[in-house]
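A protein record pairs a chain with a discrete description of its three-dimensional fold. The shape at a given residue is found from the number at the same position. Here is what such a record looks like in full:
>
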Amino acid sequence: MSAPLVSVIVRSIARPELERALASVAGQSYPALEVVCVNAKGGEHPPLPATVGKVPIRRVELGRPLGRSEAANAGLAAAVGEYVAFLDDDDWFLEHHVAALVEALASNPSARVAYANAEGVDRDGTVVHRFAEPFCYARLCVGNFIPMDAALFARELVRAGCAFDETLTVYEDWDFWLQLAAYGPFVHVDRVGVRCSAGGSSGVGLAPERQQQRAARVRVYEKWRHLWSGEQLDALVAFLEEEARVRDLLFAAAVAAADRTSQELGRVASEAEQARRELGAVLASRSWSWPAPLRGAKGRVGRGARGG
């Protein structure tokens, strides 16, 4: 029985790291792959080979710059694999990534989505973040915790109507996962399968982007709040209550640890003060004072001997 075809969609803006991304697809241990490379840059894009390793590359051109959601939908429309994965052009798969996810879905016939752990790495290769949360629908309702590159999903979900919301410029991946999760829970493969470039040019952490993210989050909630059942909303509230309880426990533990540290420092300071007093008493005692002339004489004899 032949392995099901996996389409890997690469939304390319012609970053220098594109070659590394494609090479990571060619280096997969999984045998049945195709690359669907969407020119999201628009205009001139560096030429692409017909294959990378043994993996064929098909190029998608719409003749203009594309936003992330539009480029993703163009890739989905062109993909022909039974399964689909995304790979940003500055990220890369580890060798086992696709094979591990296909195996996870084969082992869970009712599941249509599997995802692996992912690492965010800085320019020098330092791991700055690790994405490794088990699947929880209520957690997904709070916010996205699955990088786009980490997952593999059945293309039948696209045929069922799942698509990227092109009105969203932020959190379009979160919205897409919520659509897929409506068809059942995801399978989590607790193993790092992809590395994502953290870089330094995204602007994350700047006030304007935080405001943009907040506005986008509100839009996602406005879209989904009408679609969530009372049971799902109850699960969301329960999740948030549990998160608050855990934070309270962690805070109480931190306060207790700080109190213990303060008490220990006080004890050490008290012992040091007691030792200082005892030393002062020894130095002031007669038993320490009467040998003083002898110590002085010993010093003079030593100096005299050296002088002779």
